[in-house]
Amino acid sequence: MSGSRALASLLAVVATALALTASAGAADEVAVTVDRSHVATQLGRRFTFRTTVANEGGAATTSLIAHLNVLSLQPGTYVDPEDWSGNRTRYLGTIPAGESRTITWSIHAVNDGSFAAYITVLPQAVSDEVPTTSAVVQFDVQKRTTLNSGGILPLALGIPALLGLLAATVHVSRRRR
Fold first, then answer.
1. pLDDT (tens digit, 9 = 90+) per residue, 140-155?
2. Taking a C-beta distance cutoff of 8 angstroms, is the pair 115, 80 a contact?
3. pTM for this entry
């Protein structure tokens, strides 16, 4: 009787270990890497970086989702991630064993200061799995001071000059009559 209890206890321990391994599953087998750790840019500019989501396990993953997160490294700076990137969530589907998916993320620098971005990958189906997170890509955005912001200087000077010339022409033509 004690031998069967010992066997039942051993089987229970093995079953629990297998269940824990299965629940860890894809999160432990998925690796997320980034192609750079730092970007320096100016306000209003766009930049890109790439992440690779690799399945390091022996079986295909479940359907995965990758999500871009953006945050400020300085207190008091508001960040609305939708302003920084319009395409922050990517549905990757399943990734076969030993294969990977590379994603290019485009970011528009809308505030100056120090910021960070990271990618979180999690299963599309609700589960207990802990998400896999990439390393941080830090980006420093410098203010851009220019007199010709976006090519506006010729318009800002040209339109009033054109209107003045038009008014002077009308005034001269009325005087001649």
1. 999 876 656 666 767 6
2. no
3. 0.66
